[in-house]
């Protein structure tokens, strides 16, 4: 499941700060989590996968060597994007390719329109907050967290059939809230 931008920012920044404090496992986790984001960022901008992979490695090395320059008062993803963007610009210059990379693409490290996804997520959370706790929790477990019916039943101490019926009824209640049909 894709994380909201604020959640991803907080998680990545926490790993970076722990890494700066000497937690090697957190730092390794940070670099591992950044790899797919960077791979996607570079793959969307370059035609050859090998070039993109080289830039991922160069960016991870730059993050490591420049980690002391990270300003803990600022967002981690802005710092990350600046490094990735400069690595891409350097690569394009060396290759003789002229392209513009607008600064407004700062969120592009995290893929498609995260702002739209964040707005939709906020809307869903607001609607869910209007449901009774039991219905809200069922929908969060099964539909948002992606738990199977069996996993949700186990975590909530319910039977699988009770979870199925509860999710169905919760969805009907949610549809009534948004003015949709209840069938």
UniProtKB/TrEMBL annotation:
List UniProt keywords, sorted A-Z: DNA-binding, Sigma factor, Transcription, Transcription regulation
Molecular function, one GO term: DNA binding
Q: From what superkingdom does this record's organism come?
A: Bacteria
Domain called RNA polymerase sigma-70 region: residue spans: 32-95
Q: Which InterPro entries match?
A: RNA_pol_sigma-70-like, RNA_pol_sigma-70_dom, RNA_pol_sigma70_r2, RNA_pol_sigma70_r4_t2, RNA_pol_sigma_r2, RNA_pol_sigma_r3/r4-like, WH-like_DNA-bd_sf
Q: Where is the signal peptide?
A: none
User: Which GO BP terms, alphabetically?
Assistant: DNA-templated transcription initiation
What the entry lists under Pfam families is as follows: Sigma70_r2, Sigma70_r4_2
Q: Which residues form the RNA polymerase sigma factor 70 region 4 type domain?
A: 122-174
Question: What family, per the record?
Answer: Belongs to the sigma-70 factor family. ECF subfamily.
Name listed for the protein in its UniProt record: RNA polymerase sigma-70 factor (ECF subfamily)
Q: Which species is the source of this protein?
A: Rhizomicrobium palustre
